Amino acid sequence: MDELKNTPVPLRRDRLSEVPAEIGTPDYSASELTPGIVHIGTGNFHRAHQAWYLHRLMQDGQARDWAIVGAGVRPGDAAMREKLLAQECVTTLIELSPEGTSAEITGSMIDFVPVDEDNASLVACMADPAIRIVSLTVTEGGYYVDPSTGKFDPDHPDILHDAAHPSEPRTAFGAIIEALRQRRDAGQGPFTVQSCDNLRGNGDITRDTVLSLARLIDKDLADWIEAHCTFPNSMVDCIVPATGPDEIAAARALGVDDAAPVTHENFRQWVIEDSFCAGRPDWDRVGATFTDRVHDYETMKIRILNAGHQVLANAGEVLSVPTIADCMAHPDISAFWRKVERDEIVPHVDPVPGMTPEDYVTLIEERFANPAIRDTTRRVAFDGSSRHSGFVLPILRDALASGAPVEGLILVEALWARMCHGTREDGSEIAPNDPNWPALMAASAAAREDPQAWLEQRGIYGDLAEDRRVSEPFARWLETIWQQGTEAALRAYVNAR
C-alpha cells in the first residue's frame, strides 16, 4: 500500500483529483474552455509566463473563451506536441524559492496543432475567426533581422521560400500572413500578433517582419494587415531553466508524473502595450501591467537582466562554473558583474514608476543568486550571436556615443570570444552552443593571433570593428585572458581605478 501511495500520478485532466492536495490544480475543466489564442513556441517560458497568467484568470472564472492552442513551426516542435497531447496539455509548474518549493498544475492550453512541413494545420487554425491573438516565443534570433543592420533580412532562405510559396510557408510569419489572407478574403476580422520574446520593441520588430514579408508576397495584403492588425510591445520576465531529468524527477518526487514539467523562479513580470485589435484577456487583474511606457520597462530589464546574464555566462562557461547562481557565488565573476552593472549599464537606463535602475540591479542580484534555480550557464550563453547583438552591443554603442566607460563591456566581448574557442580553462570541451558556432569558432581561433579577426564579424559588430576605442581594449583584454587567465582579467578590471 505504501508503494502505491508513493507512486506519482500520471498527469491527465481526469487524474487531477488524485494529485497530492498541496499541489494546486485547475478549478475549471477543458469542456468549459474555448480557444482564443494560438501560441507558436510552447517552450518552458511560455508555459511558466503567458499561460500561467491566463490560468490565473481562469481560476477566477474569467477568460474561459481565451484558451490557448499550442503550435510550432520546426520539426523539433513535434516532440513537444506529442508530450503535451499525451497529458491533455496540462503542465506542472514548480516554483523554486530560496524558502522552499511549491507546485501547481495549469490547464489554460487545450490543444496543439499538428506540426506540418507546409504549416497547413497552423494556418487553418489561425484562420478560424475564434482566434483573436496569435502570440510567439520563437527566441530573440527568430525574427529574421540582420544583426548588422537591425533591419529585416529579405535574403534569408526561409524568407525567400515563403515569398515564393506563400501558401506553403516555412516560417511562423509566413503562416501568419497566409492565415490573415484567408481571413481577409473570407470577410473576417484580423487578429493581434503578440511577441513574448526578449526583444526591445518586440511588437515593433514583429510588425516589421510581418509587413516586410507580406510586401514581398502581396502589397495589397500588406496594406490590409498594416491597417487592421496590431502588434503590441511587451516586456516579459521570469527566469525559467531548461527541463531535463532532474526536473522530471522533481515533479515525480512531488507526486506527479509529468513528461514536460517547468521549473521557475518566484518572480514574474509582464508589461504590455494595450493595443489589441480583436480584444484581449484582462491579464492586469492577475498582475500584468498595461502601460504606454513599455519601452522604459523593457530597456531596464533587457539591459540589466539580459545583458547582465551575458556578463556572467561567458566567464562562467570558460571557468567551468555550472549555473548562474554558482556564478554569483564566485567572488571574481560576481564582483565583475556588479561593477559592469553599476558603472557601465545603469548610466544608460532610465527609472520606471516605483523602480530605479540601482534598485533593479539589487533585485536582479537577489534573483540571480537564488540557489534553488539551477539555470545553467550553457543555457544563458546559448545563441550569443543574437544575445550580444541585442543586449550588450546597444549599451556599448550608447556608452561610446556619450563618452562613458566601456572597459567592462569590451571585456564581456573578449570573454565571449574566448568561450567560442570551444574549450574551457580546465581543458574540457564546450559543445556547439550557437547557430553560427563554426564561424564563431573560426573567428575565435584567428583572434588568438589577430584580435581584430573577432571584431571583423561585421554581421555582429558592424562599424564597431573600426573604432579604436573598441579594438584596442578588446585586443588587450583578449591577450590578458589567453596569457593570464579569465580570473586575472576579471580582477584587473575590478581593481582598476
TrEMBL record:
Any one GO molecular-function label of the UniProt entry: oxidoreductase activity, acting on the CH-OH group of donors, NAD or NADP as acceptor
The Mannitol dehydrogenase C-terminal domain covers which part of the protein? 294-482
Entries under Pfam families matching the protein: Mannitol_dh (PF01232), Mannitol_dh_C (PF08125)
The segment(s) forming the Mannitol dehydrogenase N-terminal domain are: 36-284
The record ties this protein, via InterPro entries, to: 6-PGluconate_DH-like_C_sf, 6PGD_dom2, Mannitol_DH, Mannitol_DH/Oxidoreductase, Mannitol_DH_C, Mannitol_DH_N, NAD(P)-bd_dom_sf
Q: Which UniProt keywords apply?
A: Oxidoreductase
Q: Please report the name of this protein according to its UniProt entry.
A: Mannitol dehydrogenase
Q: What is the lineage of its organism?
A: Bacteria, Pseudomonadati, Pseudomonadota, Alphaproteobacteria, Rhodobacterales
